[in-house]
């Protein structure tokens, strides 16, 4: 450590080159002479300050005890961990201030494991900071390049191996091996590509409201579908919808029976994700769009619940302002203006589902969505 | 005092001083802050429609009109108070029983507050408003008994109909332009039922054809289960989902790591 106590040669200040002495901080204002020295000299390592434990044996012993205490905490933590592991039932709860009732096993094992690991870690760091030598040591980096003799020896071994394997003399082996290695990854590529499933084809533009299953390759034939309450799967009477009501709707035939869980769509989640509809009833005098009135029934209007931004379910309807809010990115749609975007990143209004009532007074769709629901995609068109 | 003075340049001194200062300011404020003024006069218990009408005229008519016909503010189509015919006793019990009405000041949304009337007065007000035009009545104790509901079915209904605004665990959430859906923790079963039936403020109406009375009780049972649920995983952080959890991990987890790194890198002497 004494190396650093005397300034190394590198820290001497260069003089005599006309650009002056180094300026110390306690000199006050010094008028510069302009220019920079030819070459900055290496200031060397900073002056080493000895620690308490380096100078005072009592302090060193105190540090020793502190480190030993930390390691002792670790030992205690590990032993307690083992005891608690066998003693505490996983279903037992304990009251922890600030958290409330929580799992006794989680708290006990977590705290003792923390003691066990942090005790070792803090002990080691404290040991290094107080007792291990803290003098800066310079280690020169060795050249990376191997000696010329080693390098030529490697080349010699490789070329001898190549020659003895006869690969250079027998081109048939060389070319078939090359072909085999080049073709081998194709199996993996096709497997990964094939596992991505069928191409979507028309399915992004279709929903269950087109008349039934709308997956890739399926071309449903339109038939009027009743609007069904989600999750009860019951048809909805127009007379039951009061002003200010909101009903979450799925098309007839999509949901399984809520009691037996039978029937329903084969790809339930995919179909739900496209067909979800929000049904609201407004005072018809508040609706400003004639198309919205025409496509609804006495102020009952049905809109796709899938946000045109990135497809989150737009379910936050405020019955007084008639704003529909998407919880993901705060796109806001005005239900009185045909779900026009009035705030947020969405670019297109929510598609409306044209509805009417059937002979029994239940709400039914009269045509599928006129445009693709949900976010934009390449083939969507206008 | 010398020990304190010796540590005045310690790196943690500023943080400790700030904490002491903040704590003292808060404590002094809590001790000397004036109680909010309460100018509401306490009327005698009243049951009948007539007495409800008197209470209404004294406390509600300023905004809702002398005969509960509603009043405009005269600024655009803003209303001071909507007409109350047909809102029913349930709406009165909810709005007045949770302290939302009488509204302390105009705003985007009536806030939950201290209840200004006793039960008899609320019942009288409800009787008066219900006499104007039929509307949802205050539910019976049996209709809101959580122990008779099915929490599993209630949970499913809650996730479809309520969770988008009130959060999956009923922790509430933001709406547009400063409005919000309140948290449902520890809201009484009666008030939850009345809110569904009447659709207060921004909330849509879930009438008996949409969510049947039995299903409303199931939802109440679900919320009751959530209220009583212990959290075996430790801190729930408000059950707000990944945002608070991420924030907690980034601030505290990363903060502790940064602190350790600073300690490791600092010179011992």
UniProtKB/TrEMBL annotation, chain A:
Membrane disposition: Multi-pass membrane protein
Domain Rieske: 274-364
Keyword Oxidoreductase (UniProt): yes
SUPFAM superfamilies: ISP domain (SSF50022)
UniProt entry tagged with the keyword Ribosomal protein: no
Main location per the UniProt record: membrane
Alphabetically ordered keywords of this record: 2Fe-2S, Cell membrane, Disulfide bond, Electron transport, Iron, Iron-sulfur, Membrane, Metal-binding, Oxidoreductase, Respiratory chain, Transmembrane, Transmembrane helix, Transport
Compartment(s) where it occurs, according to its Swiss-Prot or TrEMBL record: Cell membrane
Annotated TM spans: 67-87, 107-128, 172-193
Functional description taken from the UniProt entry: Iron-sulfur subunit of the cytochrome bc1 complex, an essential component of the respiratory electron transport chain required for ATP synthesis. The bc1 complex catalyzes the oxidation of menaquinol and the reduction of cytochrome c in the respiratory chain. The bc1 complex operates through a Q-cycle mechanism that couples electron transfer to generation of the proton gradient that drives ATP synthesis.
Family designation: Belongs to the Rieske iron-sulfur protein family.
Full protein name: Cytochrome bc1 complex Rieske iron-sulfur subunit
Organism the protein comes from: Phycicoccus sonneratiae
From TrEMBL, chain B:
Reactions listed under catalytic activity: a quinol + 2 Fe(III)-[cytochrome c](out) = a quinone + 2 Fe(II)-[cytochrome c](out) + 2 H(+)(out)
Occurrences of domain Cytochrome c (ranges): 47-133, 149-227
Record-listed E.C. numbers: 7.1.1.8
A Pfam family: Cytochrom_C
Topology term for the membrane: Multi-pass membrane protein
Keyword Cell division assigned: no
Cell compartments where the protein resides: Cell membrane
Record field: transmembrane: 247-265
Top-level taxon of origin: Bacteria
Subunit structure: The cytochrome bc1 complex is composed of a cytochrome b (QcrB), the Rieske iron-sulfur protein (QcrA) and a diheme cytochrome c (QcrC) subunit.
Protein's recorded name: Cytochrome bc1 complex cytochrome c subunit
Species for this entry: Phycicoccus sonneratiae
Upper taxonomic lineage: Bacteria, Bacillati, Actinomycetota, Actinomycetes, Micrococcales
